[in-house]
Amino acid sequence: MRRRRAAVAAGFCASFLLGSVLNVLFAPGSEPPRPGQSPGPSPAPGPGRRGDRGELARQIRARYEEVQRYSRGGPAPGAGRPERRRLMDLAPGGPGLQRPRPPRARPLPDGAPSWPPAPGPGSPGLGPRLGCAALRNVTGAQYVGSGYTKAVYRVRLPGGAAVALKAVDFSGHDLGSCVREFGARRGCYRLAAHKLLKEMVLLERLRHPNVLQLYGYCYQDSEDIPDTLTTITELGAPVEMIQLLQTSWEDRFRICLSLGRLLHHLAHSPLGSVTLLDFRPRQFVLVDGELKVTDLDDARVEETPCASSADCILEFPARNFTLPCSAQGWCEGMNEKRNLYNAYRFFFTYLLPHSAPPSLRPLLDSIVNATEYQHLPESTIPQEDYRCWPSYHHGSCLLSVFNVAEAMDVCESHAQCRAFVVTNQTTWTGRQLVFFKTGWSQVVPDPNKTTYVRASG
After folding, report:
1. Over the chain, what HEC string results?
2. Which one of 52, 169, 278, 295 is the catalytic residue?
3. Verdict on whether the full-model pTM lies above 0.70
């Protein structure tokens, strides 16, 4: 009897789990319940004020116009004419697709554009793509993760191919904070969905071996919101820096080479120079060993406007750059400079020097050190100490690090640090002992030490 009760309970739980997965797929953006949690009701719209709704409409229109600008930015390779009704939709009545439902009343904040957005003149079409029909019989659904705005799922299509689905996260910070502020759930969804729409346009306009492939998209009703948007993209593996450091140097060099090709493409794209305002490793994935950018909703095409070079200061934790202001009133090369420096900060400094072939180390040192620190071999800084915790020396800042890249990170985290000296001493675990300094006014020879000085801003 006990076994029978256990089997019935297990069957019930399995049925409930399957139903939850299917609900996730056909309610795009809904985050699957975390372990120990049950799916709760949707947040109730707040009271809102008319002035608040006007501000929400202004933000929706600004994002709508941004999408329109990128979609009109010149023809991308292989672009065709757009379908009339929706910017990124398939033709109604096409093979395997249901006919569109009759239009219904959809309250919008005053002044907000209609949803789904109408295409602008010259906006690119996507050609034959996967649509809603491809999502009807998917299997193996798995929740991958979510960020500020979007949630990502892994599914397997009927033909066996594994793809990623992206949608607005109904439980995410972006949608939730908007609903709390404006009390307009549908308007807030449209505001968040324009980020996903912008990413779709840029994935299509910036097509490249190191940009994630866009396979298709689907509009369908979800919860109380009509025409929610789901994108279908190439599936990649998240970039985990600790795991990458355990791979061979050749594999890490391939990733850096992929990134170098992507940087060149972004600097000379059909839309102009594109910068990734959020350049952290989580914005990238690995597909068959190749690095690909996947998150483009924080990308920017326009260079920074300026009246003089004083408006063109690019600030980073370690150093600042001042770029020229062009006669047309734009900071020259700021987008490209930001991408290059962030690529160094988050990728090159970790992946290139570690366990590199001895014959290539001088060249790699030259590449890495040219970006941030001046390398002074066989030298030290005898004074200009400061105290830090947990120092191995009571009168100075003496810490252990894994490598030079970690020493740079430590120096950048200390406001008073302007240089550091790598000694030939190690701890019992093999970590290098490094002195951190407030300056480098006096540098003296020392065959057993190496000094790294921050480049001037």
Report:
1. CHHHHHHHHHHHHHHHHHHHHHHHHCCCCCCCCCCCCCCCCCCCCCCCCHHHHHHHHHHHHHHHHHHHHHHCCCCCCCCCCCCCCCCCCCCCCCCCCCCCCCCCCCCCCCCCCCCCCCCCCCCCCCCCCECHHHHCCCEEEEEEEECCCEEEEEEECCCCCEEEEEEECCCCHHHHHHHHHHCCHHHHHHHHHHHHHHHHHHHHHCCCCCECCEEEEEEEEECCEEEEEEEEECCCEECCHHHHHCCCHHHHHHHHHHHHHHHHHHHCECCECCEECCCCHHHEEEECCEEEECCCCCEECCCCECCCHHHCEEECCCCEEECCECCCCEECCHHHHHHHHHHHHHHHHHHCCCCCCHHHHHHHHHHHHHHCEEEEEEEECCCCECCCCCCCCCCCEEEEECCHHHHHHHHHHCCCCCEEEEEEEECCCCCEEEEEECCCCCCEEEEEEEEEEECCC
2. 278
3. no
Sorted by sequence, the CB contacts under 8 Å of residue 415 that are 6+ apart come out as none
Q: Is 278 labeled as catalytic in the residue annotation? A: yes
**CA separation for the pair 261, 267 (Å, rounded):** 10
Per-residue tokens: 359? 């014959």
Our measurement of the distance from residue 11's CA atom to the centroid of its chain's CA atoms, rounded to an integer in Å, reads: 40
Q: How many residues does this entry show for the chain?
A: 457
Each residue's pLDDT tens digit, 132-157: 998 888 999 999 998 899 999 999 99
The residue assigned the tokens 């120092």 is: 391
Q: Which two tokens stand for residue 17?
A: 């789990």
List pLDDT tens digits, range 254-277: 999 999 999 999 999 999 999 999
Span 84-89, average pLDDT = 33
Contact assessment for residue 151 and residue 31, using Cβ atoms and an 8 Å cutoff:
yes
- Token pair 């980020």: residue: 195
Residue 257 to residue 264: CA distance in whole angstroms: 11
Angle at 336 between CA 332 and CA 340, to 5 degrees: 135
Q: How far apart are CA 87 and CA 379, in angstroms?
A: 61
Q: For residue 223, which amino acid is it?
A: E
The pLDDT of residue 381 is above 70:
yes
